[in-house]
Amino acid sequence: MRNRKVQERIRYHFNDSHGRYGAPKITFLLQQEGYTLTERTVGLYMRELGLRSCVSRKFKVRTTDSNHDLPIAPNLLNQQFNVEKPNRV
């Protein structure tokens, strides 16, 4: 009886996190609800249920590659921004 309730809660937390939470986070959430389970037990239940968390890569900033051999646009303004009328430069 207890196993079925625990498995329902595991499936709920897994689906609530869109498949991102693994055994450690689900164990933490279940312990906050009052269940006394180990991470290993939650992992075994997840394996029985066929649940596997989706690990996403961390965001890595990609900046401009300034070391290239491509032509560089000429600097037509040359820091002279004063114009007579808008949209003339």
What does it look like?
- It is rod-shaped and about 80 Å long.
- The mean pLDDT is 88.
- The protein contains 3 helices and no strands.
- With 89 residues, the chain is mainly α.
- It has a domain at 2-49.
- The chain has helices at residues 2-16, 23-32, 39-49.
- The longest helix has 15 residues, at 2-16.
The Rg value, from CA coordinates, equals: 28 Å
Mean pLDDT: 88
Low-confidence stretches: none
Topology, number of strands: 0
* Helicity range: 40-55%
Q: From the helix content, strand content and strand pairing, which structural class follows? A: mainly alpha
Largest sheet: none
Short description:
Helix content is 40%, strand content 0%. With 89 residues, the chain is an all-alpha fold.
Notable features of this structure?
3 helices; 0% strand
Strand-helix topology:
Blueprint: H1 2-16, H2 23-32, H3 39-49
